[in-house]
Specification:
two-stranded antiparallel ribbon, Arc Repressor Mutant, subunit A, alpha/beta, 127 residues
Length: 127
């Protein structure tokens, strides 16, 4: 099981240019032989899109995994006092969005030490 003592960045409304600039800076540093700190990030166009993925029940699921370590989905459902099928679906969705992972034995776990949510506000228009 690989764990990251790293941060998952959830960004809402970040312009594509900012992501490209971060990638370009990392590539430049790597070419210069500098150690590049890994960046784990997921971007959303709108806040509603992020909230459709990271629902309150899914945040609770991530919290239980963070405390428990790697466990089966059945055990996770038991600890959450939720239906197995719903917990399984939530796990699959969170795996798609990089928030949790599944190891070679089929156990799910929360690999990040922290998840940071960054929401960019639209630019204001001059009056």
């Amino acid at each position: 099981m690989k764990t990251h003592n790293a941060v998952l960045h959830l960004t809402v409304g970040e312009p594509m240019e900012a992501s490209l600039a971060r990638a370009a800076a990392a590539m430049k540093a790597a070419k210069q032989g500098k150690r590049v700190k890994p960046y784990f990030g997921v971007g959303f166009g709108e806040v509603g899109e992020m909230f459709s993925v990271f629902t309150p029940k899914r945040w609770e699921l991530i919290g239980v995994l963070r405390k428990s370590g790697a466990i089966t989905v059945a055990e996770l459902a038991r600890r959450l006092k939720r239906d197995y099928k719903n917990v399984h679906n939530d796990c699959e969705r969170l795996i798609e969005w990089m928030a949790i992972e599944k190891d070679e034995n089929g156990l799910v776990f929360a690999p990040y030490s922290e998840i940071v949510v960054d929401m960019k506000l639209p630019d204001s228009r001059a009056a």
